[in-house]
């Protein structure tokens, strides 16, 4: 009798142990347990830790509550300005309702992936190429709203959607490169022209200032020579100032010496023999204009002869002619 009781107790303990092992479940911290009893959803969701279910009656489904990173395959589409592009993105989502994620949708991961691809193609068709390249933040927000609207009913919340890469055709890349190069060249020319204008104004002010002091131009020339001579890998041609040449030319000319005036020949007046000579006053010749002695000509020049300006001799009237003086016998 005692032996039968011991055997029965051991069998009961073994059955209890087997039942406990079949009914015991462990739910991790980042998971939630959804229990189906005979196919019906139990209202309570099992939290993390140790839990028991009825073996062969209850079925426990664990749902991961962590944020899921799902890459969206590259989608090819035509933008609003008729440019063919390939765009890929990434979706960050997490499950907020474990029961809805299991009951309302067969596979919430696949559903979110398909919704993301469809929304991405829709965003490509509604946007311009410039928006895809430069205004991605606005497109990310619009894409997040498009995916989050149906995902709320599935117990899924979209945390973030980002466009990763935009692939362009090679022809479009070359066209954009030429456009960017032309734009940079235009800006470079404008900046160069602006610099030339400012430099010309400053040079005009400097020229006006140097015109008041001629020595400033010589000092500037010497500064330029010093700056060029610092590099010993070039030949320097120094222009010689014309003012210095004129100064040396004047210094080489001899000083002019005064020359004596040439003698003036005075011709005597003829007197007739038959007439008694009366004392006549000696006519005085008018002053002779003598040109000053010319200075010594510069080397290579021909000397000019000196011209004497002598007054012509006044003719005397013949005896007996009207106007002649009477002759005393």
- Tertiary shape: rod-shaped
Strand element count: 8
Number of helices: 8
Ends: how far apart?
Answer: 228 Å
SSE order: HEEEEEEEHHHHEHHH
Low-confidence stretches: 299-310
Helix- and strand-based class? Answer: alpha+beta
Characterize the main sheet. 3 strands, antiparallel
Mean pLDDT: 78
With strands numbered from the N-terminus, the spatial order across the biggest sheet is 3-2-5
Work out the helicity level. 40-55%
Percentage of residues in strands: 15-25%
Radius of gyration: 63 Å
Give a topology summary:
Blueprint lengths: L1 H22 E4 L3 E7 L2 E7 L2 E4 L5 E7 L3 E11 L5 E12 L2 H6 L4 H19 L2 H6 L1 H16 L4 E12 L2 H43 L1 H16 L12 H11 L77
Antiparallel strand pairs: 1-4, 2-3, 2-5, 6-7, 7-8
A few lines on this structure:
The chain is an alpha+beta fold and 329 residues long.
Kindly describe this structure:
The chain has eight helices and eight strands. The longest helix has 43 residues, at 170-212. It has a three-stranded antiparallel β-sheet. It has a three-stranded antiparallel β-sheet with strand order 6-7-8. Strands 1-4 form a two-stranded antiparallel ribbon. The protein is an alpha+beta fold. The termini are far apart. Helix 3 packs across helix 5 (136-151). Residues 299-310 have low confidence and may be disordered.
Question: Which keywords apply here?
Answer:
single chain; 329 residues; alpha+beta; three-stranded antiparallel sheet; 8 helices; rod-shaped
């Amino acid at each position: 009798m005692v032996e039968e009781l011991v055997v029965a107790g051991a069998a009961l303990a073994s059955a209890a142990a087997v039942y406990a092992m079949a009914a015991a479940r462990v739910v991790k911290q980042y998971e939630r347990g959804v229990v189906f009893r005979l196919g019906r959803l139990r209202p309570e969701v099992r939290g993390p830790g140790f839990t028991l279910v009825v073996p062969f009656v209850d079925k426990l489904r664990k749902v991961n509550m962590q944020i899921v990173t799902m890459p969206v395959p590259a989608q090819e589409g035509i933008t609003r300005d008729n440019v063919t592009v390939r765009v890929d993105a990434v979706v960050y989502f997490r499950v907020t309702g474990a029961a809805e994620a299991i009951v309302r949708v067969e596979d919430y991961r696949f559903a979110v992936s398909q919704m993301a691809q469809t929304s991405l193609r829709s965003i490509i068709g509604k946007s311009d190429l410039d928006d895809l390249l430069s205004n991605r933040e606005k497109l990310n927000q619009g894409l997040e709203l498009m995916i989050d609207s149906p995902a709320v009913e599935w117990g899924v919340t979209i945390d973030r959607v980002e466009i990763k890469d935009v692939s362009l055709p090679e022809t479009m890349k070359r066209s954009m490169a030429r456009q960017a190069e032309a734009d940079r060249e235009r800006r470079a020319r404008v900046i160069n022209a602006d610099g030339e204008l400012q430099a010309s104004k400053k040079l005009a002010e400097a020229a006006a200032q140097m015109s008041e002091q001629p020595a400033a131009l010589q000092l500037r020339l010497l500064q330029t020579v010093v700056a060029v001579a610092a590099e010993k890998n070039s030949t320097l041609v120094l222009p010689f100032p014309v003012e210095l040449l004129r100064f040396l030319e004047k210094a080489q000319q001899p000083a002019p010496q005064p020359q004596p005036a040439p003698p003036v020949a005075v011709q005597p007046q003829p007197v007739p023999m038959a007439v008694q000579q009366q004392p006549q006053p000696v006519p005085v010749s008018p002053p002779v204009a003598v040109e000053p002695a010319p200075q010594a000509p510069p080397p290579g020049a021909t000397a000019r002869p000196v011209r004497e300006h002598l007054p012509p001799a006044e003719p005397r009237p013949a005896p007996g002619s009207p106007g002649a003086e009477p002759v005393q016998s």
